[in-house]
Amino acid sequence: MFGLEKTAGQQKAGSSGGVPSMACVGDLNVLSSSIPATKVELSVSCRNLLDRDTFSKSDPICVLYTQAIGNKEWREFGRTEVIDNTLNPDFVRKFIMDYFFEERENLRFDFYDVDSKSPNLSKHDFLGQMFCTLGEIVGSQGSRLEKSIVGIPGKKCGTVIVTAEELGCCRDAVLMQFCANKLDKKDFFGKSDPFLVFHRSNEDGSFTICHKTEVIKNTLNPVWQAFKISVRALCNGDYDRTIKVEVYDWDRDGSHDFIGEFTTSYRELSRGQSQFNVYEVINPKKKGKKKKYVNSGTVTLLSFLIETEVSFLDYIKGGTQINFTVAIDFTASNGNPSQPTSLHYMNPYQLNAYGMALKAVGEIIQDYDSDKMFPALGFGARLPPDGRVSHEFALNGNPQNPYCHGIDGVMEAYYRSLKSVQLYGPTNFAPVINHVARYAASVKDGSQYFVLLIITDGVISDMAQTKESIVNASKLPMSIIIVGVGPAEFDAMEELDGDVVRISSRGKFAERDIVQFVPFRDYIDRSGNHVLSMARLAKDVLAEIPEQFLSYMRVRGIKPSPAPPPYTPPIHVLQTQI
What we know:
578 residues, alpha+beta, Rossmann fold, 3 domains
């Protein structure tokens, strides 16, 4: 009914079908080059909906809208089925969405009581709506968000429960080891130097290379090292798809000699070491020419071990909290805050660069922090009453409790500080990095991860100490984002970023890359569209966080905690309209 043959997620206005990626929802094509980190499936249930029918209960439907980043326009993403005669629907049809940690995806769930077969929503009774972000759902305990339905003044509209489930798009990897026996001798003076090449078959019958083993020199009975490959790379998740394995004799000049080949499949390999996984290596040319040809040797599978790759969302769902700390540069080089030329200028009509960067990054990260309390620090200022210089002061004036409520609370404390402290110097980063590192060092069990956002106008005074702090912090559950505002040269920041050369201090290298630097000026939109430019800024500074987070967990061998048991709705006898 209602033209609902399409699955949820395909009814996007102006779309030619297919699930719209979050990155290019609306008019934001600048972001569409991202490959979605993962897909999540949203399930919707309601409790105690308004009853709009006189003789029976409402017949509810849920309609999901996403918001374009540029013009803030809401677009329909999809609809659930209609469920007859209930105020407590558990909708069967799901919404499948691309999920990016680094993007803020605003969602709106509208509920209607369906009164006819018309697909036009204005012909049905509005039951209320709920606004949230995708991050808010994912970041809730057990990835389950419960919120009141609003939108009809003076009426209690009930609650909605939205649960996000990451789609297991074959996240398994396999660890395999092979050996070979009695391979053909191809070298004139010695034995062969064999290696294996694995190919997965494509839909059109062609093959794509997916793995090469190392070369084992001068042997006809090689034992190759075990190697790990994702199931997606090996067979694209199709367990019966043909896998072709070629055996070559390595030659220095690159003209490797073909010894032979065999085919198998993931399903066959998954039987592990057995008589089924001893393969005859066949050279078709030899087979065609020689009547007595048997084979060119055999290849045997020695071991086959499945490992499930864990994702960032597995940890979030298991309860890991992201703790967000802000550190703001209050050095004199920013200029007098009362002057329009200052980077700290308090323009009553528009956020300054510090405020814009803080809001862009903070609004996304706050969805992953359950208490929404953020420590906010300043550095490089003289503090009242005695004018002492501090490189680690609480923006809210309370060193015992530097926490501010939400990003708005941080903004408020920042503006208050500008009125009370004197901008001074020098620009020292190490104290605020060490401040967060002390907290991170106290919880290394994977239950918490710390992100420090430093916003600065540039030239750093304590480079050696900062490098040492970063090298030490690279062993801890933390990441550092640096946003450079203003026109300064940021060469030193690029060095701290460590993307090109891993950062080191006193001969010790950072265990992992934990710093991401971006210059704010690269995101100033000449057309004045700050919303769009700030979405790009947040995307670029946050895109590396999930991988940095996972690298810490992998190195420490920390597995995600099990997610809380899934929500089981009370059982209702439901009749579904077809």
